[in-house]
Automatic annotation (TrEMBL):
InterPro entries: Rab-GAP-TBC_dom (IPR000195), Rab-GAP_TBC_sf (IPR035969). Pfam families: RabGAP-TBC (PF00566). Residues 1-156 form the Rab-GAP TBC domain. GO terms for molecular function: GTPase activator activity. SUPFAM superfamilies: Ypt/Rab-GAP domain of gyp1p. This is Rab-GAP TBC domain-containing protein. It comes from Smittium megazygosporum.
Length: 216
């Protein structure tokens, strides 16, 4: 794979190091070889798409493929396919519009938590945009992401389903979040705890909300 962009390679390496440090003792990656694989896959993707600039979330979006797929070229094609799917969806559904729609659902279905976030001056657009753009890969621990993406990648409409998962996570964490202040809320929403994804998506309240939204 072509890795001619030295500056980009260095940025990828730095983000991979931060990602590994964040996982700490729970890091299951091979720290000797996997940084090279992250670099190769992401650089190959950028070199194949000259109109795309590197973003730190690429590392997080690539991580499940690096972790689960042994062959580098297979990981690359899976990552490229995901990025193309995201790009196509975002062209038809601009991120700002996705955020606005999500916030209307958040306000409607979790009004108390929405009000608490406003009272604490949480930048709602910032965290919602991050959750939507990264498919929670930058926020959830790897174990939860593997569970979540196992569901997502077995369907053709996972990007339509994703906001409902985000709403369900907020509902699941509602009681604890309502007791917290600004800095504590931010610490949780940008670094979510391990979550039982299958249990989360089976919650009756979640299914009722998603069905109501889809019917509107």
């Amino acid at each position: 794979m072509d890795k001619k962009n030295t500056e980009c390679s260095q940025r990828i390496r730095r983000e991979v190091n931060r990602y590994f440090q964040r996982m700490g003792k729970n890091n299951l990656f091979d720290i000797s070889h996997d940084p090279n694989r992250f670099e190769a896959v992401i650089c190959a993707y950028i070199n194949s798409n000259n109109n795309i600039d590197y973003k730190p979330e690429f590392v997080h979006l690539c991580a499940p493929f690096i972790f689960t797929i042994h062959e580098e070229y297979d990981a690359f094609y899976c990552f490229e396919s995901l990025m193309q799917t995201l790009d196509d969806f975002n062209r038809s559904n601009p991120v700002n519009s996705q955020v606005a729609l999500f916030l209307s659902w958040f306000r409607s279905f979790l009004p108390d938590l929405y009000g608490d976030f406003q009272d604490e001056d949480i930048n709602l657009s910032e965290f919602v945009s991050a959750w939507l753009k990264s498919l929670l890969a930058s926020q959830l621990p790897l174990g939860s992401i593997l569970q979540l993406w196992d569901v997502y990648l077995s369907t053709t409409s996972f990007l339509d389903f994703h906001p409902f998962v985000c709403l369900s996570i907020l509902s699941f964490l509602k009681d604890s979040l309502e007791e917290l202040e600004y800095s504590e809320i931010r610490a949780i929403i940008f670094r979510l705890p391990e979550i039982d994804i299958p249990r989360l998506t089976r919650l009756p309240t979640f299914n009722q909300k998603s069905n109501n939204i889809k019917s509107n």
